[in-house]
Structure formats: C-alpha cells, structure tokens
Design goal:
The chain has helices spanning 3-7, 10-40, 45-77, 80-88, 92-105, 117-152, 155-159, 162-188, 200-220, 231-247. It is an all-alpha fold.
C-alpha cells in the first residue's frame, strides 16, 4: 500500500468524518437555538427565514474556494485530512501555506509524489500546532477583550485595531514572498521557473490580482457588497482558469 493509499484509507475517513459530523451537529444545534432565541425576542419570522436563505446562498461560492483547497492538498496529503482541516478550523490560505512551508523544510514538495508517513505526520502536527493558539487565546482573553470593546463603544473596530493591521501585514508579507520567489527564480534562471521555462506563476498572480481588484472595486465603489463574499474564491478560479489556458 502506497503512502497516498494509506492517507485515503477507510479508517482516516471514519475518524475525520466523525469529527466533521460532530461539528455539523453543533452548527445545527446553534442554528435551532438562534431561531428559538429570535422568536423569543419577537423577531419577524419572515425576516429570519430570509436571513437563513441569503446566508446559505452566499455560502455556496466561497465554499468553492475551500473545495479547491481540499483538491489541491489531496494529491499529497490525501482527502480526509485536508477535508477535516478546511471543514472545522482551517483557512484556505493558512493550510496551503503551512503545508507547503513544512514540506519544504523536510526537503520535499507537495504534489511531487515524495510524501512519506513521517513527513505527513510532521506536516499534520505543524498545521495543527500553528493554528491552535487562536482557540487558546480566545478562551483566555476574549471575555476581557469584548468587555473592553463594549466600554469603548466599538472605537477600536472603527479605527482599525492591531489585529486588522497585523492581518494586513501578514498577507502583504506572504504575497510578497511568493511573488518575490517567482520573480527571483525566473531572473536567476534557477529552479522550476528558469528563464527558459515558465511565465505561468507570474501570469496567474497578475490575473488573480486583477480579478480581486475588480471584485473589490465593484463591492466598495459600485455598492455590490455581496461580491465581497465571493472575491477570494472568484479570484482563485480566475487564476486557475488562466493557468489551464496557458498550459494548453
């Protein structure tokens, strides 16, 4: 049995599926409790149904991006583990970034067929440890932070607090590192993207950036706010289509 067959084994599907089913059950319980709480507060039933319908509708396209992430990681990590990560607590940009960084430190690359059970264990452990701190810090400090926000009347949120700035800085750094690696490797003539080789990564980056800029412009300047929910998935799809068209 190959490593990928082990990572797609029935036991892993059973373990990961049980966890996902538990989380889905919790979501249903919270939805029922929220519905009952809304009725107890005297909220209009028609409006609550409309909110549920619109939320479900607007969740479909963003979930396409999550599905793409599962498919992208499944070639190296199997289907159950990426499915679990991206269904419960993971984020698309986080999971792919950490998995790729961990694989690089182990001397392998995702999608190359070099995966071993030891490498998978290391990657899975790193993916879990790096994201667990959000839950830990929330459990320890969220109540105090919410109390501070309530006392300040939400001024921190309006002004853009440290969390917003840190998140923006992280994304800028991550994107710059990726683009810099593509440009540097291309100019130096080293690695997979040598001068004689591939413009595909740079073109995909450009297409994805233009797509994201278009979505942001339409959402913020033209008042089409619902597009903001689809911007990440939409820009990913545009980049993938560009890669397919270039590679033909």
């Amino acid at each position: 049995m190959t490593v990928l067959e082990q990572l797609n084994s029935g036991s892993l599907y059973l373990i990961c599926g049980a966890i996902v089913a538990f989380i889905a059950a919790v979501c249903v319980i919270f939805m029922v409790r929220a519905w009952r709480a809304g009725k107890a507060l005297g909220m209009d039933t028609v409006r609550m149904k409309r909110a549920i319908t619109s939320s479900a509708t607007f969740s479909v396209l963003p979930s396409v991006g999550i599905l793409l992430g599962v498919l992208a990681l499944s070639g190296s990590l199997g289907v159950p583990w990426p499915w679990l990560r991206l269904s419960v607590i993971g984020a698309l940009h986080y999971e792919t970034q950490v998995a790729d960084a961990a694989a690089e430190q182990l001397g392998i690359s995702l999608g190359s067929g070099q995966m071993t059970t030891q490498a998978f264990a290391t990657i899975a452990l790193l993916m879990s440890l790096c994201i667990v701190w959000g839950m830990v810090l929330s459990a320890l400090f969220n109540r105090r932070y919410l109390a501070k926000l309530q006392r300040g009347g939400g001024k921190e949120k309006k002004a853009g607090g440290f969390g917003d700035r840190a998140m923006a800085a992280m994304f800028i750094g991550m994107v710059s590192a990726y683009i810099g690696s593509y440009v540097g490797a291309f100019i130096s003539g080293q690695g997979a993207f040598s001068f004689a080789g591939d413009w595909t990564p740079l073109i995909v980056v450009l297409v994805s950036a233009l797509a994201m800029a278009l979505f942001t412009y339409l959402a913020e300047k033209k008042g089409i706010a619902w597009l903001d929910n689809f911007s990440i998935a939409g820009s990913m799809l545009c980049g993938m289509v560009a890669a397919v068209l270039i590679g033909r």
